Amino acid sequence: MEVPDEVQEPGYLTQSLFTDKTATVSEENIQRILSSQYKLPATARVALVKLEAPSSRSYYWNDEDYQKTQQAYVDQLNEELRKNSRVQQVATIPDLLLPQPATFTGIREAAVRMQADLVLVYSISNDIYSKYKLFSKTDIKAFATTQVLLMDVRTGLVPFTTVVTREFQSKKAENELDILETRRRIQREAGLLTIREIGQRLSTFLASKP
What we know:
The protein is of the alpha/beta class. It has five helices and five strands; from the N terminus they run ααβαβαβββα. The protein has helices spanning 5-8, 27-35, 63-82, 104-113, 179-208; strands at residues 44-50, 87-92, 118-128, 140-152, 160-170. The chain is elongated. Mean pLDDT is 83; it is low at 1-8.
């Protein structure tokens, strides 16, 4: 007879106690969760999910610029995650698998379909500092804020979260057609800075867990 996971790993939470579609948890299970230990998988397949931030797509971004920027973010996250020996595989969950609006339950179920062990959910918002006017000849300065959470697919727990804000300042490059192209590049660079910082924090977290 198969021995339940909870017997195999006494004191460790090995399955989700969020038992319904609303992802709520009973008082009894709250006590069980808070008194249990959590263990990361020894090797992990990681799925990426981007949640749209309200300011992430401004009116002056065309589809091509927007898609290239989003791909740059995904590529940077892939690069950062693959630096860690614990990460076996990284894949992006396509929008087609996610409910709209996205929920933790829906994200978890989509990750199960992709056989992911962990889900990295992120949201990036960025903008130009207001004091840098649209047609100013001075440097343009942008900021980006990225929020990240790491969810364990088996348990539904979130063992890691962080928020990073970074800024980037630059002038219009000679090959850029107009100031709007410059603004987009600077905003993208600010976003990439946040992802690099998140990669470092996440690597530290993954390395610190047995």
